[in-house]
Amino acid sequence: MASLRCRECGRAASSCECRGRRRWQLRAYAGTDDEGHKRWATKTVTAGIRGAEHALNEFAAEVNKRPRSTSRSATVGELFNKWLAQLGAHGRAPATVRDYRSKYHSYIRPRFAEVPVSRLSAADLDALYAHLHATGRAPGTIRKTHAIIRKALDQARRWGWIATNPADDATPPSIRGHRPSPPDPACIPAILAAADTLTPQAQLLIRLALSTGARRGELVALTWGDIDLDAPAVHIRSSLSRDLDGNLIRKPTKTHATAWVLIDAGTATLLERWRATQDTNAALEHVALDGDSFVLTPDLMARRPYGPDWASGIWSNVRGHNGVPDCPLKDLRHLSATYLLGQGVPIAEIAARLRHASPSTTLRFYAGTSPEMQEASRRALGKAFGT
Known about the structure:
Layout: E1 14-18, E2 23-32, E3 38-46, H1 49-65, H2 76-89, H3 94-112, H4 122-134, H5 139-158, H6 188-195, H7 200-212, H8 216-220, E4 227-228, E5 233-236, E6 239-242, E7 248-251, E8 259-262, H9 265-284, H10 308-319, H11 331-342, H12 347-354, H13 359-366, H14 371-385
Antiparallel strand pairs: 1-2, 2-3, 4-5, 5-8, 6-7
């Protein structure tokens, strides 16, 4: 089998071992650790003999070019502290960094914080995943934790702290593809009735969530410049979230897409009434509303918005009423799409309202979820079968 020579000592620095039908483990010399012991980078490939030889040459050459680490004794804790700080400095979304940090402190830090990065193995990671599964963590949570570990270790490899990423050979649990399970559209009257018992702003929040399919951060980001009461329509163009210090910041929508979404007459009437109330409140402070004034706000002058958590809190109050499903606020987005699909609205229009990148995304998540469409299919097949 092909081999390369170590740039340090000139000795053979690679090998290849058959691990089954067309499966090979590549092994390349990666220098020594802090105690002078040899370190080896490994990689598994699927190929024929010639393909394995070619892969070995490429892998050994890649490992041989990697910088020899000056931080081989760095721990997993030190790696995550440096990596998370870098993500924040490079503009990664604050919510993403918070999620990574939360999972690190909850699942990774208790087990690996003091473990040297260079000694972390795939077996160690598999043991962590087995422990998380045994303690009741969902497969999706474990796979997300695995993805975070893999990204951090890949950064350690680029920094030269390790020769190969052990997460590449780890085996997190598999999960089935996620599919939204929206509430039955028959519960819409109960939701609206429950919303009518709340404050005008809370009532408006629920109506906007149902009529536009907007996410909670997009709803609290709405200003009066985003409202066209003549059309009537709502411009979904941005979202509010919190940075690492807990401050509200404006950012693009999740898909960076914007859209004017037409709304029904009832929701437009609620907006008109609320605008009149806000104008009266602002006049008491001797100010006038403009296009930058927030629609949903705790401030009489409408200069300060609510945060996304406020929207979730309002929905929690609505869920306490009879006939209203116990589900997260984002399911109102799914409910809106499912209802429109059942009413025969073209899939392209629904995709535009939800600001999906492609109608195929809408089809993948919502096709077959509408009771009306399933009933129509049942009747059509019954007619074909003569029953």
